[in-house]
Amino acid sequence: MTRRKAERRGRAAEWLAMFYLMAKGYRILGHRCRTPFGEVDVAAWKQGVLVIVEVKARNTYASGAYAVTPMAQDRIARAAQVLAGRWRLHSAPIRFDLVVVGASWLPRHERAAWFSERLG
Questions:
Q1: Measured in Å, how far apart are the chain's first and last C-alpha atoms?
Q2: Which domain covers residue 28, as residue numbers?
């Protein structure tokens, strides 16, 4: 797959994931949020929790889950701390979710897909 095609597929997956999350009652706070530590695909809010969502467009759920390496998790956790400060949500709990979007099935949403030592 070409780089351009992969980028388009990823953007479409992010939009599908956001609509899916909104249908489940999440309020989207940001999309493609840039920080000095990297980009967060989707930031959402639900029931007093800041939810940081990594979106993967993959053919299987397993390949999407394995694509979020420990190094990526650490980067996302650092970026989440920056966003929490930017939005004055220092005291809000942060949860890291994963949404994997496939070609022929609904997005699969994994709540609390990982935990960060960085956040205690």
A1: 39
A2: 3-119
